[in-house]
Design brief:
The chain is of the alpha/beta class. The chain has helices at 34-41, 83-88, 92-95, 103-115, 131-143, 161-173, 185-191, 208-211, 214-221, 223-232, and strands at 2-5, 8-11, 23-27, 47-49, 66-69, 149-152, 177-182, 194-198, 202-206. A six-stranded mixed beta sheet has the order 5-6-7-3-8-9, with helices on both faces. It has a three-stranded antiparallel beta sheet with strand order 2-1-4, covered by helices on one side. The two termini are 30 Å apart.
């Protein structure tokens, strides 16, 4: 498939399949199309060529089966809501926007916050939390909906080591299929069952050992850039 904006493709030649319960890492430089691929799986970016399905449905129709963790900057940190209220947003598709929350919903929110190590921050205003804590709250918001597919856009950018380890532990225990974008090759090798190497198009797809070869990385990143990528990873 190809996907893009205003009729112009920014990502082409994508050909992959992800089975239930598997973890896929999208790897590539800034502007490679990683966020575009994630948003196309949510039906937020149009597919311009080929076909994309999520659980056999057009992506927009499968959105109730997915959870999404954007980069932390996607949610206004000054908005006056508590961590628990942010997580409760993940339950709205189940309970309806105008219906009162139930005891089961409040219990699910507490459990989700506990899973990301922030049960003691439930009443804190979202904007007062650290960047890593805010990212964990957004992860709790996604998992409280009990998704079959979890999509995460650069979940480790700017987070502290404690938050990174917590997020990793949650993702490894998730029964859902997981798709995340990352620049970190070491993390991709550690976490993912499959890797999709992107830069404007798909350059490789398969298990980390097959996709993240030096030859594939040179092709996707370019000869000079890849030296820095390999050193950093």
């Amino acid at each position: 498939m190809s996907a893009g904006y205003r009729g112009t493709p920014v990502l082409t030649h994508v050909d992959l399949d992800l089975a239930a319960g598997k973890r896929l890492a999208l790897v590539g430089p800034n502007g490679a199309g990683k966020s575009t691929l994630i948003k196309s799986a949510l039906g937020l970016v149009p597919v311009l060529g080929g076909e994309a399905t999520v659980f056999g449905l057009p992506p927009a129709q499968a959105r109730s089966l997915t959870g999404y963790v954007p980069q932390t900057g996607a949610l206004d940190a000054d908005f006056p809501v508590s961590a628990a209220q942010v997580v409760m947003m993940g339950r709205y598709r189940r309970i309806g926007w105008w219906r009162p929350t139930r005891a089961a919903d409040r219990r699910a929110v507490r459990e989700a916050l506990d899973r990301v190590g922030l049960a003691d921050r439930a009443g804190k205003q979202f904007g007062t939390l650290s960047g890593g804590q805010r990212q964990r709250v957004l992860l709790a918001r996604a998992i409280v909906a009990e998704p079959r597919l979890l999509l995460l856009d650069e979940p480790f950018n700017g987070v502290d080591m404690v938050s990174q380890e917590t997020i990793l532990d949650v993702l490894k225990a998730m029964p859902a299929a997981v798709v995340l974008s990352t620049h970190d090759l070491t993390l991709a090798r550690e976490l993912a069952d499959l890797v999709c190497l992107l830069n404007g198009r798909q350059w490789a797809f398969g298990p980390p050992g097959e996709a993240l070869t030096v030859a594939n990385l040179r092709a996707a990143y370019g000869g000079r850039v890849i030296e820095n990528v390999l050193v950093e990873s």
